[in-house]
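Could someone model flavin-adenine dinucleotide with this protein?
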Amino acid sequence: MEKRVKILNTLKQIFDKEDILVDNASLETYSYDATPFLKGEKPLVVVFPRNEKQVQELVKFASKENIPLYPRGSGSGLTGGALPTKKGIVVSFEKMNKVHFIDEEELVALVEPGVITYNFQKEAEKKGLFYPPDPSSYKYSSIGGNIAENAGGPRCVKYGVTKDYVLDLECVFADGTLTNVGSKTIKWVSGYNLKDIIVGSEGTLALITKAYLKLIPLPETRKTALFAFEKVEDAAKTVFEIFKSRVIPSALEFLDEPSLEAIKNYVDLPYLKDEKIKTILIVETDGYEEGAKKDMEKCISVAKGNNAIDIIFAKNNEEAELIWKARRSLSPAIMKLKPYKVNEDIVVPRKKLVDALKGAYEIAKEFNLLVVCFGHAGDGNIHVNFLYEEGEEDKVEKAVEKLFKYVISLGGAISGEHGIGLTKAKFLPLEVKEAYYKMKDIKKALDPQNILNPGKIFLF
Ligand SMILES: Cc1cc2nc3c(=O)[nH]c(=O)nc-3n(C[C@H](O)[C@H](O)[C@H](O)COP(=O)(O)OP(=O)(O)OC[C@H]3O[C@@H](n4cnc5c(N)ncnc54)[C@H](O)[C@@H]3O)c2cc1C
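Reply:
Sure, complex below.
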């Protein structure tokens, strides 16, 4: 009790009154993120810094008093990354949400971590510029959270993930050092690339207080189409052959038969009525009109050559939106099938897509679970959703472990997007092997007291 009073008294010297939350309802709220059915420890307090100096003072104090800090963006993480694991302070970056500038000559922008990704994209688009990273949560997740998770989305198949757009970061390290870890130049090779170690470090190595981001010209146009198949093998073959035909689509999404069944129960989409349709691909190409059109023609010809039973080409934005509606309806549609789900975001080399899917179906059968698979086929990233009833948690856990071991045996990874956080910490050594100890060495060197987001990525 005395310690809590001391903590609050110090925080009042760093933050304004309205930037400190201690009421029970708020503390309860900040012990959750978007990870289904997982609650963290109730924090002692939630603070909302407005500038990097406050973050620095806070970290110096936490380091002196050995208090855990839990950085948080919008709380949309799916692996418990922002959840407190011990009594400590949640550092919410919601109020550090300024776009400082967008430089149309250098094609860069300086933003604060709490900026919502979609809002930043819209600001850039007004100037004819493009910030491609597009996690499906982009309308509410933050740039800081995206950087900490190295988030990706449908467009990453062509444009890369968040790290490819981060040039420089201003960070506060666990000892209170406030410094930049990248460069304002498009290329640089001076010393260790600390910036790329901070990207994807899930708040365990430093708190990000500013990001200097790369922008590219906004593509002139987008072409969208849906390819429907009777056999999953034909859809998978279409995926490889699109790349073989030297087209890199700007999105290439895959939905399996159980996904389509779930959507049909949830929303009425005219193009899914044919009973023969068992799998669909949603394909997008972009660029200049001529190039995007030519790329799409090549994709259509590949799909025809692989027995597509229906091809729908969107003639305008409205029709494109209708095609994307299938993909966007998936999350709520799935939740109508069973009360609980785990969504694993495994990733395999593209050539192993069919193997990964077959493995997921076999594992689901072995454990008598319903499974729904969909995702970013273009980069081999499949969301495997095991759906279950209350009381089936143990078998789901076993199914997940078996899935991870299988994916690793295919040369894949246990997470393509959502990170390790709390929920996958125990599985990380299975994949990264000896590198696990090198990762731990980095953590110990930069945060010897383990005050930054303890319990995430590592089990200590
Ligand atoms: C419906 C849905 C769809 C999703 N789709 C995708 C997808 O397509 N692709 C994808 O990659 N992810 C996806 N996600 C997961 C999630 O949205 C991303 O991981 C996102 O990047 C998290 O951003 P956030 O601002 O919500 O961060 P939070 O969830 O608040 O935090 C995530 C991690 O970042 C750390 N962090 C946050 N801010 C900072 C900071 N300033 N400094 C240091 N560390 C910080 C936290 O400690 C935590 O470890 C989805 C989530 C949902 C709910």
